[in-house]
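Hi C.,

You asked whether I'd gotten around to modeling the 267-residue construct. I have! Everything is below, sequence then structure, no commentary in between.
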Amino acid sequence: AAAAAAPADAASGDGDGESSRQFCNFCKYETELELPALPEEVYADSFLRLKHVASGCVIDFNALDALRKVDPHNDLVKVAFADEWSSARAGPAGTARKARDLTIHKPYDWTFTTDYAGTVPKEWRVTDTDEQIDYEALKQREPILHHATINLFGDDFADNGEVELSVRMRVMPTSFFVLQRLLIRVDGVLMRVVDTRLYHRFGTQYILRECMLREQSVKELEAKLGVDPKKAPGAAASIYHKSNLNQLIEFLPVIKSQTQKIEMPPR
């Protein structure tokens, strides 16, 4: 397995060779995607690549392919969470200003929700399976031979929340494990997490891929946690702090889950 990470803002540039390459990447995203706008941060040169040495076939995780699966025509948040959206956009002048900042001239999924689960070429055979990732084996204390955390894209929705797509990997003596996580929070509206996990035990001829969607409205989530943002706004804000996210995610109901077997190509 090999990983590479070289963050590059899709829209940055100062006239030198490096910025010219970044500008070319920006043009590629603009021409190949139907989206009317890109996330504020796109790490166009960052990727994770897993290579099957015997066949030369690879599995990639990258921002361009992830954004290809974002709906370029429909504002899904306003449709699915209409009441929450209207309530969150109503309020004091500061909130109204934020709502104006999010005015969309051409509807699209501005949360950049994607069910991207890696770029898997046709040489790999993918089938559904009842076999599950061995999380007990992953809890065993093993030396970490290699690890990486790679950001792919991010946006703060004009200070109305956040979206972040990142991928992490670790390699142990007996296996490797990959977690790609799409984290979406729209203030006062919803929290959504899309996880893709890959697990391979060395000596086997396949990779297990688990895809899971968790989602809940902020109103329902805060009620479940016993938090009243009107009475204790500080407490409500603190539950979304990055240091609390892993615990918070466990409170989100699982909407959809699927496990697949990705069989390695013949030599």
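If it helps when you're writing up: Residues 17-32 form the longest helix (16 residues).

Thanks,
B.
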